[in-house]
Amino acid sequence: MAMENTIRAAVMGAERRLAVLLPLPLSGAYDYAIPDGIEPASGDFLRVPLGSREVIGVAWGEATGEVGSHRLKPILGRLDAPLMPEVMRRFVEWVAHYTLSPPGAVLRMAMSVSAALESPKAQIAYRRAAGEPEALGLRLTPGRARVLAILADGPPRHPLELAREAGVSPAVVKSLAQSGVIEQVELPARTPFDVPDISRAGVAHTPDQLIAVDALRARVEAGGYSVTLLDGVAGSGKTEVYFEAIAATLAAGRQALVLVPEIALTSQWLARFRNRFGVEPAQWHSDLSASQRRITWRAIAEGRVQVLVGARSALFLPFPRLGLIVVDEEHDHSFKQEDGVIYHARDMAVVRARLGDHPIVLASATPSLETIENVRQGRYSIVKLPDRHGGAVLPEIKLIDMRLDPPPRQSWLSPTLRAALAETLEAKEQAMLFLNRRGYAPLTLCRSCGHRMQCPQCTAWLVEHRLAGKLQCHHCGFSTILPAACPACHAPANFAACGPGVERLAEEFRSLHPDARVAIVASDTLGGPEAIAELVRQVAEHEIDVLIGTQIVAKGHHFPMLTLVGVVDADLGLDGGELRAAERTYQLLAQVAGRAGRAMLPGRVFLQTYRAEHPVMQALIGSDREGFLAAEAEARQRGGWPPFGRLAALIVSGPYEDTVDRTARALARKAPHGEGIEVLGPAPAPLALLRGRFRRRLLLKTRRGANIQAYLRRWLDSVEVPSSVRVQVDIDPYSFL
């Protein structure tokens, strides 16, 4: 007790304190006392007490003064890590304010690799010692002699590297160290990231590409914040164009970040980068090991990474000298994070560029309506690439009206598409069949009573994966084997697979062409970047004749011999009544069509549809993107929907349905009202049960210029939410599930 009083008196006398933000879902920073011997700066990573445990936080600035000196706890220490850049701290605060998330929850995304905050361990190496082997009583074998010869004039070597170069086992190196002939030294941790060579020649650019290159270079060299849409048709060489913007950024001594929606897109992208710059960039995605994430995070923070390509979470890495962001496939809905802190990486990347006062490039063959409207309003500039590179032409797109050209019973490929596939194989060319459904069948039901196999934790049907021998929920991951009897009527198993997935489509195709080499490509059939790279190699070297896949094959890939694309169910994305259903369907089908005919061989695309008259289908066959976007914009503007109005969703969820319903009704009673404000709901979400939680949705709709966050704060503060219920806020919702 006497010691505690001494510490407390010292803190009260010094009155030195600062605010520390912790990576926890807390409302704000906490005050801590600054003990003697520690002089923290804003952005320093600090060890601080929190209750009975110790946590790492960030020095956030001036203390709030809300805690009395007698309750103030002291900072325990400062970590030997680069401080979090000031622009990153402002970004954390901006994202928290915009998404109505606790600042600490956003900080947690920026501190996702806590191990990287510890000083990297020095690496062990060996060098030649002064003693001679004979004098030390060691017999000099040929292997030992080779080790000593390597170390005679060279620098210290790591033990495994030394053993490999000498052609000996690690035990030989160890015996030399134990005898004293070689000695151990510590070397600084090595960085695995090579410096890109910006002097290497890139590909020969077309006149249109040169105009685009000059425009992007000018943005980089001028400095300051700008947003440029790089709008180019599939195969126009957008990647090679923005590589030159990256080169200009590196020449200015700045770092570059490239965001891609899916890691599946990076295999050929990395090869292109290597051809242009001689090395691979750093990568950031969920398939990295813990060690790779630690090394990469630390290298970024220390400014040793020049270029990084990554998924949306890479936006929260602590770049100290970021000078350019590229968002590739900017329209892709994968950039929207739906769990935890809900944000859209494209939109937050624009904010990050504005706060960092540097350019950002948004690249797409099918830009989002939001981006097109920003161009129209003059907020963004645009650079166009209207033609494919190298003389390739856009493929011819044809509709197959399934009402007039139906497939045989229990089949999914129309006679027209079957004939086109046969012609393609006969010509020794490659084809792709696209169906955005994983597994064998999307629905399994009992033939005796009609019972549908449903996920016990979600309002979703179980999808049969026949190759894996299981039924699986694609929302929560639940899986089970097909039961021996119907759970409802208990009749012996007599189940029907309803509708096709890619596995069933492959089964039908193989029955038609048993000798063709087929690959099924879906997110659950590829085991990470290495598997994707191997698939790309097999297609490029024509070891595969036909790809049958989901949206993972729809974008980013370049296969010169792929001349036919068949979309099995082009109408699939049009159902569900979502705001962006038509836009998304157009983008997806245009992207998958863009895989055909990317080299000198002409391409063909067939869309199987029951809605040949739909505006999306007519726009695709007429190559009328501008007309489609204009009509879509007009419809949205009439209804006051984004990008001409604003939306925010409240998702109320919990384990008890009645409690969730009461909370949702209480929110509805307190909903904001007034001119230009409309609240829809509460209503059960389409997935009314997800991962064991009941869900209800309310939707706030306002005019474009409204401060929707202010409305939401007052609304949420007016209702007491039970502890078992969670209310998630989704500003600018993209999914309405």
Give the amount of beta strand, in percent: 15-25%
The CATH homologous superfamily of the largest domain is called P-loop containing nucleotide triphosphate hydrolases
Counted beta strands: 31
**What integer value in Å does the Rg equal?**
30 Å
Using the alpha-carbon principal axes, give the shape.
globular
Report the top-level CATH class of the largest domain: Alpha Beta
Lateral arrangement of strands in the main beta sheet: 10-11-9-12-15-8-16
User: Number of DSSP helices?
Assistant: 20
Q: What's the average pLDDT?
A: 88
Oligomer: single chain
Q: Describe the main β-sheet briefly.
A: 7 strands, parallel
The secondary structure category is alpha/beta
Unreliably modeled segments: 1-13
Please indicate the count of domains: 5
* CATH fold naming of the largest domain: Rossmann fold
Distance between the termini: 57 Å
The portion of residues assigned to helices is: 25-40%
CATH architecture of the largest domain: 3-Layer(aba) Sandwich
Descriptive overview:
The protein is built from 20 helices and 31 strands. With 737 residues, it is of the alpha/beta class. It folds into 5 domains: 96 residues, GIY-YIG endonuclease, CATH 3.40.1440; 62 residues; 184 residues, P-loop containing nucleotide triphosphate hydrolases (Rossmann fold, 3-Layer(aba) Sandwich), CATH 3.40.50; 181 residues, P-loop containing nucleotide triphosphate hydrolases (Rossmann fold, 3-Layer(aba) Sandwich), CATH 3.40.50.300; 88 residues, Ribosomal protein S10 (Alpha-Beta Plaits, 2-Layer Sandwich), CATH 3.30.70.600. The strands form 8 sheets. It has a 7-stranded parallel sheet, sandwiched between helices. The chain has a 6-stranded parallel sheet with strand order 17-27-26-18-25-24, sandwiched between helices. A hairpin with a 5-residue loop joins strand 13 and strand 14. Helix 2 packs across helix 3 and helix 7 packs parallel to helix 8. It is globular. The N terminus is likely disordered.
